[in-house]
Amino acid sequence: MSSPFSSAHRLHVKSLYKRYLVDAQNWTIRRDLWRNKAIEIRAEFERNRNVTDPRAIAQILAEAEERLAARAHPDPFIHALYPGGTKWERNLPPPMQKPTPYM
Questions:
Q1: pLDDT for 27-84, tens place per residue?
Q2: pTM score
Q3: pLDDT at residue 86, as a whole number
Q4: Residue-level pLDDT at 29
Q5: pLDDT confidence of residue 3
Q6: Which of 1, 16, 71, 100 is the most exposed place for a label (fewest CB within 10 A)?
Q7: How far apart are CA 97 and CA 83, in angstroms?
Q8: Is residue 13 within 8 Å of residue 46, measured between CB atoms?
Q9: pLDDT for residue 14
Q10: Does the CA dihedral 66-72-41-78 come out positive or negative?
Q11: Sign, CA torsion 11/14/20/23
């Protein structure tokens, strides 16, 4: 089952799909509503699954990137322990150097 597309192309499409899902999750708080949106996103990707013309694929991907950039959430969710999260570097370990003597 060989594919006519390179692995880089597949990785780009997977990355775009995941970014769409994450953006939808940023806009939707309730998981059941997000699931409906995720199904719509999956259907949109499935509609273009069998397109083989490289120019058409490039146009579809460019339009998808533009739509994603246009509707990006202004304040996306950041997990607390990730860089930029509320607990990032909160409890740093103490430095491992000798303390300076007190005078």
A1: 998 999 999 999 999 999 999 999 999 999 999 999 999 999 999 999 888 888 888 8
A2: 0.75
A3: 83
A4: 83
A5: 67
A6: 1
A7: 25
A8: no
A9: 95
A10: positive
A11: negative
Q: Which domain holds residue 23?
A: 7-70
For residue 28, tell me if it sits in a domain.
yes
pLDDT at 37: 95
User: Does residue 97 sit within a domain?
Assistant: no
Answer whether residue 1 is part of any domain. Answer: no
Q: Return the exposure string of 37-70: e unless at least 16 CB atoms fall within 10 Å of the residue's CB, then b.
A: bbeeeeeeeeeeeeeeeeeeeeebeeebeeeeee
Q: Indicate the number of domains in the chain.
A: 1
Q: Per the structure block, which two tokens stand in for 21? A: 């899902």
- pLDDT at residue 2, rounded to an integer: 60
* DSSP H helices in the chain: 7-27, 31-47, 54-70
56: which 2 tokens? Answer: 């058409």
In this structure, is residue 32 part of a structural domain? Answer: yes
How far is it, in rounded angstroms, from Cα 41 to Cα 39? 5
